[in-house]
Amino acid sequence: MSRAVTLETLSLVPLVLSVEGFLSDDECTYIQETAEPHMEYSEVTLMDKDQGRPASDFRTSQSAFIRAHDDAILTDIDYRTASLVRIPRRHQEDVQVLRYDVTEKYDSHADYFDPALYTKDKRTLALIRNGHRNRMATVFWYLSDVEKGGETVFPRFNGAQETSMKDCKTGLKVKPEKGKVIIFYSMTPDGALDEYSLHGACPVQKGTKWAANKWVWNEPMQFVPS
Question: Signal peptide position in this chain (predicted)?
């Protein structure tokens, strides 16, 4: 069911928006319980320069993709997400649910795939049609509060040249708050990849962080109603 929301602009470079209370407590719990039996250590699509390295060098969370299918709760959230970003549901990937325990993190990365950095990865090049389609936006769902740490950090906030998270003390930091979502864009309005959308997950220092990625593409990704 659609309901009124308030968008807060957190940053213009990169463009980051926030919506509090987008997900109910019951929805957050349901997503966690649905995903938990399927959680595995997260994988990473490696750039050419990182071939041969383990995913754990970059990312130490656990994750699981879950499909809406005929699930009324997940389908409703998908449609609300589509309404939020004004892009049809068929442009969405299945949601990737994440769990970060203490010390777990994800180093700074982009959600888009730059074809110049994946020349050896034929599967990824085929997925993005050699650069003609890509992830254009991420709607990041916070499914729990975190006692300490676990922020989402954008190190290139306000056009900074920083390319790493360092100690998570610089850049824009967004605190996990149960039910909140943030929207950030991997592409600019002219279709160019936005290098300022670089982001990462700061290590959890106390508690457990549950969250989820809902990636939105600039072209349809699946045969579902819009």
Answer: 1-18
